[in-house]
Design a protein that fits this description.
Layout (H helix, E strand, L loop, with lengths): L1 E9 L4 E3 L5 E5 L5 E8 L8 E3 L4 E9 L7 E6 L8 E6 L5 E5 L1
Parallel strand pairs: 1-9
Antiparallel strand pairs: 1-6, 2-5, 3-4, 3-7, 4-6, 7-8
């Protein structure tokens, strides 16, 4: 199976965002890492998307499936700079479709 994560991001000041291919869903119980397969509505690094101050954008990330025993996981963007996207303690559901604020 696959896991779909619908994300929303609100820029405080004018901002630029992108997603790195080194973004994973990490199972809190097993440590299993599900790889990012596809991103829609946000560019992959090294490209950037400019987001005006106060503007909210929505994007969707598609990941490889999580192990059956996973009930709690984190979304982690592992990048060489500070400021990577993180969403912690996401509770697994039967549909494997989630909405998170970044």
């Amino acid at each position: 199976g696959q896991v779909t994560v619908h994300c929303h991001f609100t820029a405080g000041l004018a901002d630029a965002i992108r997603i790195w291919p080194s973004t994973f869903l990490i199972c809190r119980h097993t440590g299993h890492r599900s790889q990012l397969l596809f991103a829609e509505g946000i560019p992959l690094a090294p490209e950037w998307l400019l987001v005006p101050a106060g503007r909210e954008i929505h994007f969707t990330l598609l990941f490889a499936g999580l192990p059956r025993e996973c009930v709690l996981f984190d979304l982690v963007e592992e990048i060489p700079d500070p400021g990577g996207f993180h969403a912690n303690s996401i509770l697994r559901n039967a549909m494997d479709v989630y909405r998170v604020g970044i």
